[in-house]
Give the backbone structure.
Amino acid sequence: MSGEIVLVTGAASGIGRACAVAFANAGAKAVVLADLDEAGGHETAREVARAGAQAEFVPTDVSRPGDVERLIQRVVELYGRLDVAVNNAGIEGRSARLVDQTEADWDRVLDVNAKGVFLCMRAELPQMVRQSSGAIVNMASIAGIVGFTWAAPYVASKHAIIGLTKTAAIEVSKKGVRVNAVAPGIIKTPMIDRVTKGDPQAEAGMVELEPVGRLGTPDEIANAVLWLASDRACFVTGETLVVDGGYVAR
Ligand SMILES: NC(=O)c1ccc[n+]([C@@H]2O[C@H](COP(=O)([O-])OP(=O)(O)OC[C@H]3O[C@@H](n4cnc5c(N)ncnc54)[C@H](O)[C@@H]3O)[C@@H](O)[C@H]2O)c1
């Protein structure tokens, strides 16, 4: 990642923060951090700086086209290029059966998770195509591969990300730009703490679902993101890499 300019959305917490710090540790020149959460974004910026890369936090709502356009303009204004984009920002939505999900529940989850990835790629790809180089990694989920009860909008949004990833990959396949996704299993982050409401029994129930007998860590997802973004994965595009402790294998 030596000298590279990296963008991470949803960088204020969990998997996004781990990715931002991992790119800094791997030698990135600068990591631009986009998130709604300013306090968390600035904390990640300090961690990135400690790891030896330049850090810039840009307050961003990925569901707003104007915010996303301004974000990419800022990256190019500051650093003149964009080598890697990790489109990771996402929300879990309200836990309810499909028949109890409101239109507002649906709209918010799809707006952030699916439209957010679409808007980010729409802004990132022209810059990468101009450079004839770049790698995008979108954050899908095992919920993009199998169904989950009580999470219909989330499941739909993550299936959408996998389709968007394949389509974008094909569209830029001859332009030196690769587009892939990672599908994490259950990873111990603030998102999962919100879902379990901190109840150890609820967390134990999740651990039971994981064949490896534990939840994943944000760093384990960051490792996969780093590999997909690196030249080691130069023949990999349109792929969704499942990193799930065996969840979808059974
Ligand atoms: N934790 C898991 O088990 C798990 C599993 C599979 C996929 N994922 C996906 O990984 C990604 C990161 O999740 P996490 O577990 O680190 O969650 P998290 O809640 O810890 O972090 C998500 C970050 O996204 C930010 N965000 C939310 N809405 C945003 C918006 N509109 N614009 C910009 N930023 C926004 C939040 O402020 C937060 O900092 C999400 O896309 C999530 O769906 C997580």
